[in-house]
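Possible regression after last week's pipeline update?

I re-ran a chain I had predicted before the update to compare outputs. Posting the input and the new output here so someone can diff against the archived version. Not blocking, just want to make sure nothing changed silently.
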Amino acid sequence: MGGVEDEEYFEECQGLVEELDLEEHVKFTGFQDSLEWYPKFDVFALPSLSEGFPLTILESLSFGVPCVATGVGGVPEILGEDYLVEKWDPEGLASKISWLLENPEDRRRIGVEGRELVESKFSLERMISEYRKLYEEMI
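New output (post-update):
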């Protein structure tokens, strides 16, 4: 999902999907309203090589969708060690995704815990309060 920033890499990915006969399972949708898609996901994966603070993970968790991601940038601030993989570790990523898909009860529990985390630690009210506190300390 999203725009294509590197046409050559995008074509390589399309070729790999065809080569592995995964067209039925992998779709390149282009830009979409992601908030409409999260409820359709069983698992959200963010295999970034670099990342700031990943709002997509917060969005996914807010819908109760468990996440697996590379432990880059601000990702470890959100996800626990059990849901992180190293960069360039497709086997590790696949293993964690597969485990979540094969364990629906745990997946649902983890999704609920993720939603509770977002509501308690990253709510709009909390973020406003934290910024207000920071600004008051600076004054």
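Follow-up from reviewer: compared with the archived run. The chain has seven helices and three strands. Marking as no regression found.
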